[in-house]
Amino acid sequence: MSGGVDSAVAAARIAEAGHDVTGVHLALSANPQSYRTGARGCCTIEDSRDARRAADVIGIPFYIWDMAERFHRDVVEDFVSEYAAGRTPNPCLRCNEKIKFEAVLDRAVALGFDAVATGHHARLADGVLRRSADPDKDQSYVLGVLTRDQLSRAIFPLGDSTKAQVRREAAERGLTVADKPDSHDVCFIADGDTRGFLAGRLGADEGPIVDALTGDVVGTHQGAYGFTVGQRKGLHIDRPAQDGRPRYVLSIEPVSNTVTVGPRSALEVRSISAVRPVWNGPIGEPREPLDCTVQLRAHGEVYGCRAQVSGDTLHIELDGAATGVAAGQAAVLYAGDAVIGSATISGAV
Amino acid sequence: MLPEAIEAMAAQLGQVGNASALHAAGRRVRRVVEESRESIAEALGARPSEVVFTSGGTESDNLAIKGLYWARRASGATRVLVSAVEHHAVLDPAAWLGDHQGAKVELLPVDEHGRVQPDTLRTAVEKDPDSVALVSVMWANNEVGTVQPVRVLAAVAHDHGIPFHTDSVQAVGQLPVSFAESGVDALTVSGHKIGGPIGVGALLLARGVDPIPVLHGGGQERDVRSGTLDAPAIAGLAAAVRIAAETRDEHAKKLTELRDDLIERVRRAVPDARLNGDPVNRLPGNAHFSFPGCEGDALLMLLDAKGVECSTGSACSAGVAQPSHVLLAMGADAALARGSLRFTLGHTSTQADVDRLVEVIGPAVERARRAGLS
Questions:
Q1: Nearest residue on chain A to B372, judged by CA atoms?
Q2: Which of A26, A65, A98, A106 would you mutate first to test chain B, the one with the most B CBs within 10 A?
Q3: The domain A268-348 is classified under which CATH number: 3.20.20.70, 2.40.30.10, 2.40.50.100, 3.40.50.150?
């Protein structure tokens, strides 16, 4: 229970359905901002209070589990090292994989619980993960990395509802978080300045920005980790491109610390490889090309494709061109609205 | 709350009047307040003029620590000696004085049972007696139940003319507490720990001990504490203190029997459970254990689900369990400190409660161990 409206309503629904429910709020930071810095100063108070208040209204026990160390190791450090390696990680997905449905789930099972329920907007029935009834809020993408085992102990009570319905229900249930704003951005970067956050951990590391068409150095950057494939803004290129068209980040090369830019057309890819595949859906892993669809980033477009596994690599041939495909993001495969599996993008041409 | 305290408080709730007013209604309320003051003084071995009403233990501790420091600072006494196992209502004001008011705070170490040895205090004081503003050592510890040699410690401070405060929130009602016999200069009492109302307490202040106020205003209480007196709560407090004193022997005997049974049978159910605190000098209603390999939080949750309510000690403001400063001061390592639980018995506790705990503690510990330390 994060202290937001979704997990509060999720808890209320399963409690009402007759499950023996215990609310858990995760303390994820050892040194967060706080109202109070006294002898015991720690932790964000507002969210944990909101979560506790919701649990009280619902009438379930409530505990705070300290997952700060695990979160720092498995999510924050992973986030930093992925950027340092020239990739673009999705920390929410990592948190689901390593914290909510691994650290929390394992502990819960050891303590005698059967499952972990969350306020994610996704449907899960008969072990099959599907998109939410609310397409704008669908979170099946960030859950697509979960294994069958993990899904077998997951419950998503909000899958059939829209966000508007959830908020309305929260108000009817007397939950004060009914109109609390949605959370945005990366939860552990309070000011939203990802580049500043990374610079503080990785330090400035000046390097060239190279135009892919001419091979010319067209600018300098303060750290290749501050860029994402497909990015157009904030490149600080100090001369116009020969063709006069805007430049986009095409690739990030951490070893030579080079950011390569080029025209939008050069961003287009049709063929994607992805590693560490997970097969969690109703279909086994495709040894032959499988017609399905793929989503390449959170809230991103969905493309028709043919997907096939060879060895540990998933090959995806898109029906049409995609842009802004960044290594480190997940490729989640769907059959209709059902998740089939996922893998981490390692390259695209 | 004790029924007698509820009755005494309820009888005043509908009454109009300010105890400071001169008219008839004021006089009537003043009479309730002053009779309560006399009754509390008598029960605790103090003079009525030595009873200063406050909003509870935290305010009383703040007034004693900050007020005595401010009063003594002018003469150059800036060292504040407090035991390392104090409640945060003493530790935090002392730390604040250190951070913002020029105090030099020294935490008096304790032995493995949580006791401040008189020689420890003597050595600390005698480094430079004139520089000590005050000494504060609690009567009995709220976590591990250890009872301090308060009378001896107060005498050490008095050898050098240093005021001595004790937080006796846990002691009143369970141990014989006499302000006069203890020799302390300031003593904290709280209402709700003895079956009185929440939000009322007192600081017993010896004559001639005059802290600088924390709350300035009308000066209602000896000019050291301002604020309109809460006559209904004070009446409830007086009733609770009176009952606590009257029934203390019998109550303590019953609690001691239950507690000893609890300790013995928990040890039998969980042979490696470690009893914390002083084996002899401890509060009758306190049993405090460390369960190696368990996280206290997990154990608490499992016990709560089985209808047993206990406590892990301290949590931060956002609710994350912290290793207890009391156990750390007693020499426990952080992991063992985190695997600790306090079982408190009170006037509603029964043999059936102990039986229930003994029945569920073994499986709960086993399960918590499997869940491991997170």
A1: A107
A2: A65
A3: 2.40.30.10
